[in-house]
Each structure stands twice: as structure tokens, then as C-alpha cells.
Design a protein that fits this description.
Helix content: 10-25%
Largest sheet: 11 strands, antiparallel
Bound molecules: zinc ion
Number of helices: 6
Order of helices and strands: EEEEEEEHEEHHEEEHEEEEHH
Structural class: alpha+beta
């Protein structure tokens, strides 16, 4: 794999990840762009002890442009996009409308009151384009490309983890308008958060209690229990198992977990990396076929935070969730979920696993 680093017209970094070692990207971004917006504002919610990001500039970001105005397609003679090159395999660049960035505003944010501390939204937000083809979803990529995307995720996790202020790195893909995707071209994002996210903080506290009680790693014990039970396993290979968690929150939710206790993506071995792509593409294919049309989904990596004292208790996994519960029917986060954080799932996890297994057999 060849890695080529360049800068866009407004100074943002862009990195090409090419499968061919002789790939050349000499094109220059010819656009006249305003400087990127300054970092957003973090406000601390005193009721929940959680940071909330206020990024008002994101209101003006590109929203569902027609395909001939797609900013993620390669540039042509007549049209300059976010990617200056005329072709690419995988490309990563700093988000033009970031939730977090290292560009500080001229004036420090002021606290709304003494109970709500504020600070700049330090960190980094990147966009990952999985293919130069506007119409190809991740599920239809060749295995080699899935490997290149994984290599880019590993590269970015390692680099963002070294940035001052970044506490946690999440690689994720939102797919489908139902999820709120604003661009159809297959792409994902990478967030370098300036704090440990609420979900991760809770998971680490629970994992620490489990280790204190048993001396064991919680993620490994859950994986072993799911593999032993088997009825929620969707698919597996030598290095990975994909299962519907016993207490799944979403109509269709799958966790993809390495068999070895791995903390983050850079921790994966060569053979674990090679085994991930085929299994993940198989799983995404099942979500494409489940209801006859492609299901919307959120696919997100849970990695150990960068420097949390309990990071060694984390267990790398990918969480794939779809709000689609039936053809044309979506689950919305309504009263119980939105107000109380208490999920009510309309689909039995064992039934979801069975349907996903069958969606594989239909190939
Ligand atoms: Zn496109």
C-alpha cells in the first residue's frame, strides 16, 4: 500500500491510500476556499457529568447534493471536488465542517454559568472515502478494498492517538438517509474526541468491576458465552465472531469481535486484519438483503481510549446497528429511549440473528 500526503487549498490535510505502489497524485487543489472554521465549543452538562459539543457552523454543511455536485467524487477537468486527484482507492481528509479541530477561535469561549465549564472542542474530524465510484456501497467493495480501508483506519487511529488533546478515536460509517447521511457517496468518518465518550466511560467502569470480581476480561467472557450459546451468532471465521448481543437495543444489532483480547485497531495482527474484510463484507451483504432493499445502518468501532487508566480492560469490537425493523418501518428513538435512555427493542435478538443467518444463505 502506498500513502501520499498533501494539503487542500484551505490547508486541510488529505492522505491517499493506494493499492498500487506506483500510484501518483500530483494534482493540486485549485479551489478558492475560505479558511476552515475554528474549533467548536465544549460545554459540560452538570446533570450528567458529560461533555456536549456545540458546533453551530455545521448547520451550513453540504446537504444531499445531486450526484454531479458530489464533493467526494474525484476531480475532473471541469469540476474541483474535495479530492484533487482524478482517481483514488481510499482517501482520508480533514472534515471541512468538523465537530472537533485544533484551530482555536481568537477568543476563548465563556462559561454560561459557574456550573457549566466550557473549553474549545480540540481534536480532529476526518472523512474517509471508501471508493471513487459514486454508486458503490461498502457491501459491494472487493475484499482487497476492505483491507485498504482497514489499513487507513489503523493508520488514522495510530496518528490521531498521538495528537495533544485527543482522548479517544472512533472510526465509523453512517449509511442511508434514514440515519441522517448528508452525502450518498460511500464514506465514513473518524472522530478524535477531546474526552472519553460517555458510553466508553460506562463500559470501562463495568469492565473494571468485572475484572475486580473475577480477574477476567469482560469482553472476552461475553464473546466466549455467545460462541458457546451459538443461537445469536450470525457468522464467524478463525479470528472473528459476529453475533447479536443477548440484550441488543436495536432491531438489528451485531457486534463483530476479534477472538484475541485486542485493545484497538493498531493492535490487530496481520492475519486478524486479513480475516476481517471477508467477514465484514459478508455481514454487510446480509444487511443489504434483509428487507430486499439496503438497510440503513451505523457501523462504529469501539476502541480503548488513548490514555485512560483502565484502557487495558477494553475489548475492541465493531458495533453495527440498523433502525430498520420491517420493510418501510424504522425504529425511532422516542420517549423512553430519548428521554430516559431506556431502550425497548421490538425484535427478539435470537430472531434477528436467525434472519441475518438466512439472509446469508439467500446469496
Ligand atoms: Zn460521489
Amino acid at each position: 500500500m502506498k500513502r501520499t500526503v498533501t494539503r487542500l487549498a484551505d490547508g486541510r490535510e488529505l492522505i491517499y491510500f493506494d493499492e498500487r505502489d506506483d500510484a501518483v497524485h500530483a494534482e493540486v487543489d485549485r479551489r478558492d476556499l475560505p479558511p476552515p472554521p475554528p474549533a467548536s465549543e465544549l460545554r459540560h452538562d452538570p446533570l450528567l457529568d458529560e461533555w456536549v459539543t456545540v458546533a453551530a457552523h455545521r448547520q451550513s454543511r453540504t446537504f444531499l447534493p445531486p450526484s454531479d455536485e458530489c464533493p467526494l467524487c474525484p476531480s475532473t477537468e471541469d469540476r474541483s471536488t474535495e479530492i484533487p486527484s482524478s482517481s483514488y482507492d481510499v482517501v482520508v481528509f480533514e472534515n471541512r465542517f468538523p465537530s472537533f479541530s485544533d484551530r482555536h477561535p481568537d477568543e476563548a469561549p465563556t462559561a454560561p454559568n459557574t456550573l457549566v465549564p466550557v473549553r474549545p472542542g480540540d481534536g480532529r474530524c476526518e472523512v474517509v472515502c471508501f471508493t471513487s465510484d459514486h454508486h458503490t456501497p461498502f457491501a459491494a467493495l472487493p475484499v482487497e478494498r476492505a483491507a485498504t480501508v482497514l489499513a487507513a483506519w489503523i493508520d488514522r487511529t495510530a496518528e490521531l492517538s498521538t495528537l495533544p488533546g485527543v482522548e479517544q478515536v472512533m472510526c465509523f460509517e453512517n449509511r442511508g438517509e434514514a440515519i441522517g447521511v448528508t452525502l450518498h457517496h460511500a464514506h465514513g468518518q473518524i472522530y478524535g474526541y477531546p474526552f472519553v465518550t460517555p458510553r466508553t466511560r460506562t463500559m470501562l467502569a463495568v469492565a473494571a468491576r468485572h475484572t475486580e470480581r473475577t480477574g477476567r476480561i469482560l469482553g472476552a467472557d461475553i464473546l466466549a458465552a455467545e460462541r458457546a450459546a451459538g443461537d445469536r451468532v450470525v457468522t464467524a471465521n478463525e479470528h472473528w465472531t459476529a453475533y447479536v448481543p443477548a440484550a441488543a437495543r436495536w432491531p438489528f444489532e451485531v457486534h463483530v469481535v476479534p477472538h484475541r483480547h485486542v485493545l484497538d485497531l493498531p493492535d490487530l495482527s496481520t492475519s486478524e486484519c486479513a480475516a476481517f474484510g471477508p467477514l465484514y463484507l459478508d455481514l454487510l451483504g446480509r444487511f443489504e438483503r434483509l428487507f430486499g432493499t439496503a438497510s440503513p445502518y451505523i457501523s462504529a468501532w469501539h476502541q480503548a481510549p488513548v490514555r485512560h487508566p483502565d484502557r487495558g480492560l477494553a475489548h475492541l469490537h465493531l458495533q453495527l446497528t440498523s433502525p430498520q425493523r420491517a420493510p418501510q418501518r424504522l425504529k425511532y428513538l422516542a420517549g423512553s429511549e430519548s428521554a430516559m435512555g431506556a431502550f425497548i427493542n421490538d425484535v427478539r435478538p435470537e430472531e434477528a440473528a436467525r434472519r441475518l443467518r438466512e439472509a446469508g444463505e439467500a446469496r
